[in-house]
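yo, L,D-TPase catalytic domain-containing protein is done. seq:
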Amino acid sequence: MSGVLALTGCSSSDDDDSGSSAAAAQDKADAAAAKQKSQAAITITPKDGADHVATSGDIKVQVKRGTLASVSLTAADSGKTVAGELSADKTSWEPVDELSEATKYQLTAIAKDSEGRDETRNTTFTTLSAANTVYGIFTPEDGSTVGVGMPVSINFTKPVANRAEVEKGITVTSSSGQEVVGHWFNDSRLDLRPQEYWKSGSQVTLKLRLKGVEASEGVYGAQSKDVSFTVGRSQVSTVDVATKQMKVMRDGKLLRTIPISAGSPENPTYNGEMVISQKFEETRMNGDTVGFEGEYDIPDVPHAMRLSTSGTFIHGNYWGRGVFGNTNTSHGCVGLEDVKGAGDPNTAGAWFYSQSMIGDVVKVVNSPDKTIAPDNGLNGWNMSWADWQAGSAL
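structure:
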């Protein structure tokens, strides 16, 4: 009779006990390790391995459930250390010096939790190079007070291909609640304005959030900035070339009527709404710079205010005799009676200069010339609202 062979599993009861003991030992070891692990949690901006990091404003170390014991930021190639500032509660750190362009940096942060246990984090990143950075040069200036016609105008240091992405990073808001829309005149200039002139007394804020925005392939924005300005009283002056008179309106009321001399029939003044963009108590005007070679060179034009990029000014005139209110004689500018040296405050030129500010509007009508181009100066008001909106990338 054949015997029956019983097959059993390969493990025994002793083996089971051994496995349970090993697991228990591992759990105990894990618990001990966890008990020794620091509870401090360090966050470093930018992330490890980041490229195209701005040279200022983008680097920060923060810690939760602990305090920072030390932070070291050094250039990988030179070993130069970047100075930083620790917050009063020792939970955040930022560099105080601007970093170098196109440089690889190494950052090491050490924090301690409430039990004195250390936590260490390391990050390596590379900053933008000048060739890969674009900035927006803006007007008006932060903290300034301007006239109701002043747009926000931004000229970029490099051409912008990704206009929509850049425009998303730019907002302009007003306490008046007016809707503000951007218009690209070209790939380097974006102006923003409301449909009508700003309301007097408005507070306007420009927010640039362009850091890390890819403006064109391989070219990134490097700005995060807030700019605020105040809109002053409303002053709109209308120059009637036919009657040779200018009516200065302040907050809807006639302030003064001034005789003027505009452009001659051969060199007429542009029609249209023009915004004062610069003021000079005295300035040199040389025809060679604006296409009138050899026709004039006046070293001391008094009380001059720029109306266009191409050279249109409204200014004092001391060399014209008997022309104001009678004859249009200029090369396209609007002239007001004045004296040499700009020293007499009682002249029409001096008075209008003293009453005007950057952003005021000078409107020219009844000239035989065409309407000024909207991008010739800060003169986007010479464009319908529909056309203006069509120039937005959004």
